[in-house]
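Subject: Interface between my chains keeps coming out wrong

I've been trying for a while to get a sensible model of this assembly. When I model each chain on its own everything looks fine, but I need the whole thing in one frame so I can look at the contacts. Pasting all components below, labels as-is. Any help appreciated, I'm running out of ideas.
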Amino acid sequence: MRARSVRSYEDVVIAVPVSVPYVRYSQESAHWWIAAALRGLVKGAGITPGDIDGFTVSSFSLAPDTAVGLTQHLGLCPRFLEHIPMGGASGVVAARRAARAVQAGDAEIVACVAGDTNHIDSFRSLLGSFSRFALEASYPYGAGGPNASFALLTDGYMRRYGATREDFGRICVAQRANALTYPQAIMKKPLSLEEYMSARPIADPVHLFDCVMPVAGAEAFLVMHEDTAKERGLPYARLAGAIERHNAFPEDPLQMRGGWELDVADLWSAAGCRPDAVDLVQTYDDYPVIVMMQIEDLGLCGKGEAAEFLRGHDLTNAGTLPHNTCGGQLSAGQAGAAGGFIGFVEALRQVTGQNLAAPVAGARRALVSGFGMVNYDRGVCTAAAVLEAA
Amino acid sequence: MTGVLGDLALALASGAVEVVDLTHALTPDFPVIVLPPEFGQCAPFRIEEVSRYDARGPAWYWNNISMSEHTGTHFDAPAHWVTGRNQPGGTVDAVAPDRLVAPVCVIDMSGPAAEDPDFIMTAAHVAAWEAEHGEIPAGAWVLMRTDWAKKAGTPAYVGLDATGAHSPGPDASAIEALLARDIIGFGTETVGTDAGQGAHLSPPYPAHSLLHGAGKLGLQCLAGLDRLPPVGAMLIAPPLKIAGGSGSPLRVLALIPGKTA
Amino acid sequence: MSEHTPLARPPRKDPTAVTPLAHRPPGSPSRAGLFFAAHAARGAFALQECGECGTRIWPPRDACPKCLSADIPFTPAPTGGEVIAETTIRVTHELFYRGRGPWRVGTVQLDCGPVVTANLHRDVTTGARVRMIARLDLAGTPLMMALPAKETPLMDEDPALRGLTAHPRHRRVLVTDGRSALGQETARALLKAGAAKVFLGVADAWKPFPGAERIAAEEGIEIVPLDLSDTRSVVDLAGAIGGKTDIIVNTADHVRPGGVMGQSVALARESFETNVFGLQRLAQVFAPGMLGRANDGVNNAVAILDVTPVAALSNWNVYGMHSASAAARLSVLQGLRAELRDGGIRVMSVFIGPVEDDWHQAVPPPKLAPKAVAAAVVKALAEGIEESFTGDVARDVFARWSADPKVLERELQR
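Reply #2:
Try treating it as a single job with all components included. I did that and got this:
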């Protein structure tokens, strides 16, 4: 149906990974966290705020402000400005938007930032006003929030494909091991499969360690021309390919697949490699069932085979399939919309050798996936990218 | 103070004259006269708080009240009845004040009324009373004592059954005998000046019909008549001055000779 | 399906235990969602249906997701479906749901198309065929529940379903007018439906009334003095039973023939005193105590149900001033509903046409037997239906009112 082939992102690079250390609860505002991330970008790149002429923002807790209010609040004067409210898909989508702007000459240096604060009770407020469909068609049923929505998807997935809690548990346990090497992770204690299995139920079959911990934090990176990065001596990665899709497969009674499936061929064709050629994978991991869907839909294995596929792999940073190498949201914490950036920023660190967590040996190519916005009964936004060392 | 009122003041102060309250408290559940439902009904007493030292009025307590002119212990003016409609001064505001303070005779029918709730007082009872206590003087109130006030708060007060109310009252002969004495008015302890079954007498409702037709006044729902002597007391019964009103709730007082007299 | 033991009558209240509070749920529905709520309030399971392509739609939308048509009215929808996934929500941050869980929730594939999230009855599980209902929860939020396709033992005792209703079982009910056959039959029907006790209000106890001795002798019925036209009477009764009244059923209605010109203001005022201000008195005096017990376990305070003359919807000039009082009464109910919603007390109406009684002698049939109204009251409470229309006249008037109130106005004029 598509008439034209998609242009590559050649000459555009990603640089300066910034992760502002997370805290469980913050007295500060989203503005404060986003400012901290921007300051990290400016210092990391050795530039001034005036050099930033493109800006994308992702945040849930910025109200009543948007990206527009932030420009004045933070003294920016961009010629390219985007508000990207796509939750877990925000990181990849921000990179796509920024890359095209840089490529087209609409901006030289785009700061892509996601940040959220977390006050006592702010999570409840967010759930209670998340979307019109959620408010009317899922919240009144016990107000389980995403726990309940993903419990239903997990239940359906387990019934259909025979995945077990142990299969989900291995994902969580491996990520915890990775998180212990990442000084900024919120979770500091090891997690055993036994502990995972015996945790209290939250919304059956979802148990405590399937759930992320809401925290405050921010993540950011810069998008610029390769020349610019070279001139300033910044380590960078190429955007070898990137896809996004929204509200795919609305006829599926339960979400067993995401929009990746529609565009996965384009992703690997742009990246010029096969899925098994990546050195590490960063999935969106707000509930391990979604990890399995991404593994399948992005072509690492067939539909319904993720449990078995993952049983054959060691998912730690030293393993055969390093996955969510800083612990992901499950162990590092979910800082609102920054949860859509954490995998992207971590992948950037890994392929550019600027590690905070244990490095994946010889990491040159990373698959990063995003999944966002349970508007009602399923995640609506999906995105994925391949980052390649220069 | 000197003179006759000075004497009265001294008598009141010494207890030689006592003041007796002949009034029931106005309460929402006090019965009113019962008419067939298709007629307009006598409104019971109602009270709604306006404020009570609260946000609606921090330093004051007051109520709005509503009721019929014929609720509780009340006064009937001649205009209350069709027979009295052409009486001069027939409405409460027009009743001459000197008729509102007057001597009172009490005919004690509590004995036979205790025997029969439908007891009817006749001219013969009036004659018997006069034989004992002397002729009823002109310009006096006459009250029929039945001790019915003591039944207030019980179903027997109105005495409703499928045939209507059952309470004592006068017949036409008794009222005619009182009119012959040129009384000011006639009062009872029951919810009407007529008997509960007064509709079946001839004429129907003889007390209302004859008294008001003759320009006389009525009092009903009186209490405390057992404290009055047959003769020798003074009645004070001024109704509210309702312009064109047919009757009025009121506080009825009597002056009686005290124990020290 | 497991065996269930019958719901036990709760023990007497522990006076030292703090009563759980009712909490306000967040948010308010979209306008489209309000149509779903309106149907749910009347006990109807209605979903949007595209007028152009026929697609059934959920959640409520402002355009068809198939063809973008805006012609997507709510219409009664087939209620069949199958549960395809389920969960039990044990943790929630929302006070409104905490303490009343765990919540069994499922994904239901409706036969008519949409996939919905719904509360699950305890007797249904994944793979089960279900019958969907739409109801309001105790804060007025509309929601769906999947019931067993066929009746199961003790079906209405499912805790989640009971929470969507005001079932009289084990509850103590005040019926306001015991002088009427309507009030007496309602008291009997409530007892039969499992009410723990019925307080039956009687005004002017010194006036005899038909059936007085028989009703007073019935076990479970306690005659109490109550005159809705008298504030002190309502206050006195609340002083006696206000702390243990779980449901109020207002059967009182002062009806007299007569229109605006013909009826005296004195008489019309009597109608308003009972029908309008009486309801206000009940609400002002009883509702605060009920609000305090809106989350008080099995026999929490739950509803004020009014038996509302359908003339509230449009004036029937033969009973013109009574109709006016009915309209005011309906308005009071609407205002009260808004005031009590956040506190978890339902305000319900069973709309009725003329009843077979002394004050409707001149009205030709069909007229409602008091027993029929009593049955409708129990049904409304047991099924949690906020507004129901009982009998041919009430249903007919409602249908005509729904079509065009102005046409109904002319149709009712004699």
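Reply #3:
Confirming on my end. Chain A has two domains: 12-121+216-232, 144-213+237-389.
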